[in-house]
Amino acid sequence: GDGNCVNSDPSSPALKFEVTATWNRARVATLTLPHVQCQTPIFMPVGTQGTVKGLTSQQLEEIDCPVILGNTYHLGHRPGPELLKDMGGLHKFMNWNRGLLTDSGGFQMVSLLKFAEITEEGVRFQSPHDGSMMMLTPEESMQIQNCIGADIMMALDHVVSSTTTGPIVEEAMERTLRWIDRCISGHSRPKEQNLFGIVQGGLDVDLRKRCLDGLIKRNLPGYAIGGLSGGESKDMFWRMVDVSTQHLPANKPRYLMGVGYAVDLVTCTALGVDMFDCVYPSRTARFGTALVPTGTMQLKNSEYASDYR
Fold first, then answer.
1. 3-state SS class at 110
2. How far apart are CA 194 and CA 181, in angstroms?
């Protein structure tokens, strides 16, 4: 367009974020990305392999969905970064001309593969295809995400479950900060794609604050709150979101990863979160549950068998 992505903040050449209204800590903003301009808060459906299950790209446009997620781990394996790069990125591959956000690939490895370990170099994992040992480094995650070409790409971080305790939580947070610098160096398209850092630190307020301080110093285009929604109590979960949004800069988007239940969307929007993603709505729909204003509808129940509405 006519320079509509030129941001007043030189640290974010591919993103513009303008808060247009606030109510206590909740806010409405206009988010401008290379492929889309939208009003936040937004919910982003997950399209693992370049499709949101059960919906076409055209249907997603019809429901006015501004941004969808792609999984780097799945796309990096199939169709692979070379083919995506040749095609001009995932936008062209899936015929989607709005916003895309890709995760780093690390979480999938740790959650999907029977053998994955995190070392200082990166995530070591056993290839599910031929059993060979492979390594995903921060640099390689950036390289694959640069081929995919999403509007927003996520840093490779050291993920630990939110219910984990002990020294590993601090180690993972410190490593996440060391890796963000490797991600920044390895990111070759900062004028076209936005790298977001991820706040870790488990359920420890001090660790979260140290991670927040470290990431804010790197002056990234946006920030994600990670490592939550993994089985901790609601009270602790909301408290960690609260600490994070209080510390994050007001002029940058805040993305809460993996959160999509209605009560959490409302509560975390009230705490100042702008962006959410979760597999819940598309997954629950595939199993016959509809989300309606009054709650959930179990469409497989016999009462709907002859309901033709």
1. helix
2. 14
Q: Give the type of residue at 175.
A: R
Reduced to 3 states (helix: H, G, I; strand: E, B; else coil), residue 289 is strand
Q: Long-range contacts of range 160-167, CB-CB < 8 Å, 24 or more positions apart?
A: 160/200, 160/202, 160/227, 161/227, 161/230, 161/231, 162/202, 162/203, 162/227, 162/228, 162/229, 162/230, 162/231, 162/232, 162/236, 162/237, 163/203, 163/230, 163/231, 163/232, 164/202, 165/202
Residue 192 has pLDDT above 60, yes or no: yes
What would the two tokens of residue 268 be? Answer: 């975390």
Per residue in 234-270, pLDDT (tens digit) is 999 999 999 999 999 999 999 999 888 888 999 999 9
34 upstream amide cis, omega within 30 of 0: no
Q: What radius of gyration, in Å, describes the C-alpha atoms of the chain?
A: 19
Residues marked as catalytic: 103, 277
Identity of the amino acid at 225:
I
Q: Report which of residues 297 and 165 the model is more confident about.
A: 165
Residue 46 CB partners (closer than 8 Å, separation 6+): 52, 68, 69, 71, 277, 278, 279, 282
The better pLDDT of the pair 209, 57 is held by 209
* Separation between Cα atoms, residue 28 and residue 31, nearest integer Å: 10
Q: How far apart are CA 68 and CA 113, in angstroms?
A: 24
- Which has the higher per-residue pLDDT, 31 or 46? 31
